[in-house]
Structure formats: structure tokens, C-alpha cells
What does this fold into?
Amino acid sequence: MRFALALSLLAAVLSGCASHSNRSPDGTWINQAAIDAAAKGDNLRQALLANGPNLEWHINTKASQVTYTNGFELVEGKITSIANGKVHVDYYNYSDELSIKGDELIQAASESGPEQHFQPPKDPAPAGAPVGASFERALYGAYLGGKWTIVSGDGQGSTVQFMPDGSVQGLPENDRYALCLAGDCASMSGEYDSMWLEKNEQGNPWIFVRKGKQLEIFQALNKAAENDMPELHPGNRRWLLERN
It folds into this structure.
């Protein structure tokens, strides 16, 4: 009985030791919680706001540099200390504290935002890609990945694929897309989700509504005065797509 108890205590000690990660904070970290929430198939920006605001971190301890993005801004900080498993980052008028727990990067709650958890991307963007590209790649795959059938609209019956790199196949008159995550495009579309669709680098914003396996894409109508910031609202529906 005592031997069994000793083994149990030893196992507990070893388990506790194994839970402490010595992983380096260097590299790219993405907000997987926001991606998982969006993948459920509801309003995209609400999912991002509820699990944000930050979407991706790049950390380079050798250069004492940190960069993060919230989907609109790129913010650069300087690592001022690394001690007791915590990375202290200073910006112009605030600071962040980062740490590693298991396979997660944890951004501690502060005046700049709530506690957030980040994970390494499973399929990172190619080397040299801008900060935020790995998050977008993972989000696009989770939110719009797979094959869609055009139920209504131009190309009815055709198969559409939104690729993680921002290309789109099978959607008439379009070869690229981008989802609005934050910033000016979000201000212009207000409560509505929006995307950019283009062909040969010429395109327009569109309003979309995702409900489970259905995706509706509407023309974006501007209801603002001529010299004011655009206020986009859904017009006529152009496509209804259903995920296979």
C-alpha cells in the first residue's frame, strides 16, 4: 500500500514537472480561440471582438523585438527583460507581459487589454509574409474552407473554393478575396460582415452573412453623403452558397 502511494506521489511530481514548458517564445503565435469561434459559422467580427483584440504575435528575443496585429494596426515593441519565464515588452506609453504555458503564449491582462492565449500556427504563412498572414491563413481555412455550391446567383450549380492564400476558384468574375477583420472596412460596414472581391486587381466590397453551412453575398450599398465616410448596407443578394 505504501509502495503504491509512493508511486502515485512520484507520478504527481513528474506530471507537475512536465507541465512546465521550457519552450522559447520566439516565432509566430496566432489567436486560435478567435478562429475556433468564427468557424462555428456565425458573425465573423463578433467572434473576433469577443476573443480579441490581438490576433497574431511575432517574437524575436535575439533582436529584442515584438510585433503584434489586431487585424488593422501593426504595433512594434521592445523586449526590456526576460525573467522567471516572463517576457516584458515596452511600447510608447504602455507595456505587455508575455509567458509560455505548455504550448500556449499567454498575454497577461493589462490596461491595454484582457488576458489572451495564442498558439503556434499549424500551417504558417510563407517566410517573409507580413505579420498577420498566418492568422488570416488559418482563419480563411476554418471559416470558408472546403467546397461550396452556388445555390442561387451567377454560376448556379458550380463549385466554389475559397483558398487559405486569399484566392477563390469558381466564383464568377472573381479570383481573389479578403475578409474584413478590423479597421476602416469594419467602420464602413458597421454591424455587417464584409469582404473584398476582385479579379485582375480590380474589385469592390461586398456584404456577407454566414449562417452555418450557408453563405449569402450581397451588393454593398453606400448610404452616406458624398463627402462622408461610406456606410455600407446590404443591397440585392448576388450569391447564395452552401457548404458541401
